[in-house]
């Protein structure tokens, strides 16, 4: 069989039979070495994945994305345990003492404030129960509807719900006689407690006392507090009678009695997470079955619980994203998607 020689100087010892009996000389070795380096580079790049490294994700991209969602530079946020996970970047987001396992795309354009690890679902022996979405027909009807939000003062999502109520009242003032805010907690050994510690418990107590004894100051005070959490400053600027407030919080037959009434109802309805909505003092309902955490969803729930529809039912209220946590603005940063995130705070196990 004929051989093809690429060099007249090639010695018989160097010659080797290749497939097809094509003969090459030693010039192939540098080219093969370079090709090998290129292949290794491409493999390493593929394994590493595209996008910024983990350190840049932790120090720059994740903080910028979270800042857009929280929308308040004074809110204390921590980003912990950043690592790669199934093509995304997983991290622990800590806001106001609560931790959320969160995920973000490498370009920082998609942020998931919570996620489900699919490979862990098989560990559960019980199949997941499908949750039926409520309709207006499912909401119990009464002559005078009520919608109560159970919250704690420093939960980012409880603050969001209070802000939604405030905005709904601004757009439809007649809602004021239908909406209520109550608090979650307990009284132990003559002292009020709350899921995020004593500071929150004392703030809950102040807000309860203002609601009960200085009702006209409640929403002005809460509206101020929701901006930066400055209790003392807000008490002054909103004209709360601090002497009466101190008397209320220090009197077990006033402040603690009011608080215990809230907590008793919360226990009756099985409320544990902030925020939780109770319609007509009968049924737990979700604003997300009616469009999200927005003023319009709150209005719909009130109207669905009414035998006779109030006049504001004919109007459409805001459906804009509402800011989470402390915020100087009511509306969230554009595209943050907070109205569709059913997040809340719950006591630590």
From TrEMBL:
Region of interest (Disordered), residue spans:
329-349
Q: Keyword Thylakoid on this protein?
A: no
Protein name as catalogued: Thioredoxin-like fold domain-containing protein
A Pfam match is GILT
Residues passing through the membrane, by range: 28-47
Can you tell me which residues the record assigns to a coiled coil?
none
Q: Which organism is it from?
A: Candidatus Roizmanbacteria bacterium RIFOXYD1_FULL_38_12
UniProt cross-references to InterPro entries, sorted A to Z: Interferon-induced_GILT (IPR004911), Thioredoxin-like_sf (IPR036249)
Q: Which SUPFAM superfamilies does the UniProt record give? A: Thioredoxin-like
List the GO cellular component terms: extracellular region
Q: What GO annotations for molecular function exist for this entry?
A: oxidoreductase activity, acting on a sulfur group of donors, disulfide as acceptor
């Amino acid at each position: 069989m004929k051989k093809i020689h690429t060099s007249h100087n090639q010695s018989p010892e160097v010659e080797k039979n290749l497939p097809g009996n094509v003969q090459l000389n030693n010039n192939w070795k540098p080219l093969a070495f370079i090709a090998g380096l290129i292949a290794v580079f491409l493999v390493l790049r593929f394994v590493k994945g595209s996008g910024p490294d983990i350190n840049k994700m932790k120090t720059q991209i994740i903080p910028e994305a979270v800042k857009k969602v929280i929308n308040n530079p004074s809110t204390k946020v921590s980003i912990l345990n950043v690592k790669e996970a199934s093509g995304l970047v997983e991290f622990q987001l800590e806001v106001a003492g609560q931790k959320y396992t969160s995920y973000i795309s490498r370009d920082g354009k998609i942020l998931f404030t919570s996620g489900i690890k699919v490979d862990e679902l098989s560990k559960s022996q019980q199949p997941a129960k499908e949750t039926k979405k409520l309709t207006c027909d499912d909401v119990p009807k009464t002559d005078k509807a009520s919608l109560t939000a159970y919250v704690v003062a420093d939960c980012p999502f409880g603050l969001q719900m209070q802000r939604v109520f405030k905005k709904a009242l601004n757009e439809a003032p007649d809602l004021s006689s239908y909406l209520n805010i109550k608090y979650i907690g307990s009284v132990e050994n003559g002292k009020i407690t709350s899921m995020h510690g004593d500071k929150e418990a004392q703030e809950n107590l102040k807000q309860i006392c203002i609601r009960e004894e200085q009702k006209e100051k409640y929403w002005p005070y809460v509206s101020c507090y929701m901006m930066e959490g400055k209790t003392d400053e807000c008490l002054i600027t909103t004209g709360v009678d601090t002497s009466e407030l101190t008397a209320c919080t220090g009197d077990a037959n006033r402040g603690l009695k009011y608080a215990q009434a809230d907590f008793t109802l919360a226990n009756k309805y099985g409320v544990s997470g902030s925020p939780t909505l109770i319609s007509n003092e009968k049924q737990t309902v979700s604003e997300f079955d009616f469009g999200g955490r927005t003023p319009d969803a709150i209005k719909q729930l009130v109207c669905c619980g009414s035998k006779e529809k109030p006049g504001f039912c004919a109007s459409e209220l805001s459906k804009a994203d509402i800011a989470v946590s402390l915020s100087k603005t009511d509306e969230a940063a554009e595209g943050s998607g907070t109205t569709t995130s059913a997040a809340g705070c719950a006591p630590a196990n």
